[in-house]
Amino acid sequence: MREQRAVVTGATSGIGEAIARSLAAAGMTVVMVGRSGQRLDDARERILAAVPDANLHLERADLSLLGEVRELAGRLSRDPLPDIVVSNAAVVAELDDITPEGIQRTLATNHLAPYLLLRLLIGPVGSRPARFVVVGASPRGLTRVPVDLADLNYQTGHGLGPLPSFRPFAAYGRTKNMNAMFVYALARRLDGTRITVNGAHPGIIKGTGLGRDSRGALKLFGAALSLFTPGPDAGADTPVWLATSPEVDGATGRFFVNRKQVPTAPHTTDVHRCDRLWNESARLVGLPPEL
Ligand SMILES: NC(=O)c1ccc[n+]([C@@H]2O[C@H](COP(=O)([O-])OP(=O)(O)OC[C@H]3O[C@@H](n4cnc5c(N)ncnc54)[C@H](OP(=O)(O)O)[C@@H]3O)[C@@H](O)[C@H]2O)c1
User: Would the pTM count as exceeding 0.90?
Assistant: First the structure.
C-alpha cells in the first residue's frame, strides 16, 4: 500500500508542529507548509530529533497571499497527491495590517487561504478518498463574535468591541467562526465524493506563537490562562484523530472538541449565512461560486 501523504499548514510552531510530528510518527509522509524557510528548517530539525525516521517535505508559502496559496495548490496537485490536508495556520494581525493584495491579514490567512487551498485541491484529488481537517477554535467562546457578512474585510470594524487590545482578537474570532461555516458549506458541496471535511477546536493551549503580538489586557489574560492549560501535543490530539482514525471514517461536515462532536453557534450553521460567506469568499479569491 502507498504511504499516506499528509499536508499540514502552519507546521513551524505550536499545534501545527505537534500535528506534523504525530503524523510523521504514525509513518506518514508529511508536507510541512510554512512562510519562512528558516523556521521550516528549524521545525524539521526538532521533529527529526523526536522521530528520526520521519519522512518530511518542506513547502514554503505565505498563506496571507492568495497568489502564493494558488502556487502552493499547484505544487500539491502533482503526484503523489495528499490523502490528508490539515489546515492549521492562523494569525492574529492588527486590523490595519493589509496584505499587498488588499486583504486584511487575519481574514486572508485564517479563512481565505484554507478556502482557496482546499477548493483548488478538490479537482486533482478527484475520486480518491481524502480527509480535510480545518483547525478552528472554541465554539463556546465564539458564540459572541458572529461573522459580519457585510464587513468580512473589517473595513468598518463595527462590533469588534471598544478595547483596542481586544479588537484584533475579536477579528480573529470571526475568522475562526468562518472556519466552521466553511466546513459546513464545503461538506454539503462534497456530498457524493470520497472527500470528507471536518473542523476541530484544539483546546486552549499554551506554548504556541498565536499570542506573540498581543498587548495590554489581552496579554495579561493570555499569561494568566497559560498557568492552567496544556501544551501543543494536547492541541494536536483531536485534529490528528480526525485525520487518521477509523472511528470517523465517512464522517463529514461536523465539528469536534476533545474527539466529541459538538454543536457550533446557530449563526455558523445557518445555511443561508454559510452560502453568503461561500459566495463572497469565492469573489474575493477569484473563483466561481460553483465547485
Ligand atoms: N493556542 C490556542 O490556545 C488555540 C486555541 C484555539 C484555536 N487555536 C488554533 O490552533 C491553530 C494553531 O495555532 P497555534 O496556537 O499553534 O499558534 P502558532 O504557534 O502561532 O501557529 C500558527 C502557525 O501558522 C503559521 N502561519 C501564520 N501565518 C502564516 C502565513 N501567512 N503563511 C504560512 N503560515 C503562517 C505560523 O508560522 P510562523 O512560525 O511563521 O509564525 C505557525 O506555524 C490555529 O488555527 C489557531 O487558531 C489555537
Answer: yes
